[in-house]
Each structure stands twice: as structure tokens, then as C-alpha cells.
Amino acid sequence: MNKKIGFIGCGKMASAIIKGIKASSCGEKFEIKGAEVNCEIAELAQNKLGISVLTDNRMLVIDSDVIFIATKPNYVAQVLEEIKDELTDEKLIVSIAAGVSTEKIQKIIGTKRVIRVMPNTPALVQEGMSGVCKGEFATEEDAQFVINLLSGIGKVIEVEESQIDIVTAISGSGPAFFYQVIEDMARAGEKLGLDYEKSLLLATQTAAGSAKMVMNRGELSVQTLIDNVATKGGCTFVGIQTMKEENSAKLFSDVIEKTARKANELGK
């Protein structure tokens, strides 16, 4: 019998995960349904994702083995209060709400099994990056199930919960940061006289290729990859020196630190 997975909330992040699961090699092993109070989002999910979408969270929970909490962080407590009486010990809760700790979830639902996940939207193209951590009562088997599920939509790491806000800042929010860098590079090329679309393609493919080089670097350090391109006295070297003069390291450090802090504040 296929395992039943229910998503409470069918917004962008839930849609990315659902699309990724359905497109992955293990997609046929699961029966996926959603629950959504926003009629427009519910209709979109039904039409684009091809899943049944209920309006009653409790009914979804009753009919699911695994329940993804995919609402905005400030609605999590309200949703948990609504469904807690339907949560039997056999059901696994998976929260993708940024900043909401497993401890906070367990204060409402008790000694139920909870896995906390920080995914990201590149799951839409099966290039996602997710961080997973266990709640107090979740088992290693629970964590491994979620890791295997999300492995169909990208890469997954398991971390301590104290580190999950860092994961949020780097990979959860990270796509937007990389989009911004790509956009800025493309606009810089346009400013110098190159057509924007051509400039955007140059920046995009260079980002994709560079990421692949890092992923396949073997024992080489990232610094070695930089040095291999930035020959002393050359044009790339001048660009790297400019980045150092402008203290790009501090810029990105501040971006990650402030984002992680905000992620932590969201659940309070």
C-alpha cells in the first residue's frame, strides 16, 4: 500500500516539494493530498500539481501517514491546535516552517514524532538543498525516511536543530541571494553595452558551471579553484582584488548572519 502524504498549506514551498516528489523516481510510491484554506491557491494546486486539495485540515490528517506542516510560521500554532486530536502515534509530522522549533511544536501536540526540515525552491527542478533535524521523539528511521523522500528532489544533510537557522540562511534563503548576484552581474554587462538577455545567459550559465565545478572538485579547495582562474596580474585577479577591497566576505557574512537571526525570530 502506498504511503499517504498530506500537505497542510499548498503555497510555493509545498508546491516545489510536491512537484519534486512526483517527478522523482520514487514518486509513484506515495499518494499525495493537500489542505488549503485559500481558494485561489487550492485551485492552482489541484490544476498544476494534479493532487486532491481539501479545505479541512483535520480530514487530511486522518487520511495521512505523514503530515507536512507547510503554512507560514505565524499560523503553525493555530494549525497544530486544530489537528492535535487527530495525531495518533503512528503519524509523522514534518515541519517546513522557518524558525519554528520542534520543542514549540511538541508543546502543543505532546510526545509525537516530529522532523523539522528547511528545504528550498530549487526542488522545483530537482536541484533542491534541504537540512533535516529530529525532534525529541522522532527516530533515526523517521529521519532517514524524510531524507530519502527529499533526496528525490535534490541533496539533503542532517544537522542538529541548533544549526537549522544557519541552514535556512544559506540554502533556504540562498537561492534569492544567488539570483540577486546573477541579476547584478547581468545588469553590469548591460551597462557596459551587452544585450541584457545575452548578459543574463552568460551570468546564469557561469553560475551553474561554477557550482558544478565546486561540487566535483574532489580534494581541491575552493580557493584553489579561484586561484586557477585568477592568475596574478590578470583581469580576473583585478576583479578578485576589487571584491576584497569592497569586503565582499563581510557583506556575505552579514547577509547570512542577519538572515539566520530573522529565521530564529520568526518562530517566537
UniProtKB/TrEMBL annotation:
Its EC number is 1.5.1.2. GO terms for molecular function: pyrroline-5-carboxylate reductase activity. It is found in: Cytoplasm. InterPro entries: 6-PGluconate_DH-like_C_sf, NAD(P)-bd_dom_sf, P5C_Rdtase_cat_N, P5CR_dimer, Pyrroline-COOH_reductase. Its main location: cytoplasm. The keyword Oxidoreductase applies. Gene3D superfamilies: NAD(P)-binding Rossmann-like Domain, ProC C-terminal domain-like. Keywords: Amino-acid biosynthesis, Cytoplasm, NADP, Oxidoreductase, Proline biosynthesis. NADP(+) binds at residues 8-13, 70-73. It catalyses: L-proline + NADP(+) = (S)-1-pyrroline-5-carboxylate + NADPH + 2 H(+); L-proline + NAD(+) = (S)-1-pyrroline-5-carboxylate + NADH + 2 H(+). Residues 161-266 form the Pyrroline-5-carboxylate reductase dimerisation domain. NADPH binds at residue 57. Pathway: Amino-acid biosynthesis; L-proline biosynthesis; L-proline from L-glutamate 5-semialdehyde: step 1/1. Residues 4-99 form the Pyrroline-5-carboxylate reductase catalytic N-terminal domain. GO terms for biological process: L-proline biosynthetic process. One of its GO terms (cellular component) is cytoplasm. NCBIfam families: proC. Belongs to the pyrroline-5-carboxylate reductase family. Catalyzes the reduction of 1-pyrroline-5-carboxylate (PCA) to L-proline. This is Pyrroline-5-carboxylate reductase. The lineage of its organism: Bacteria, Candidatus Scatousia.
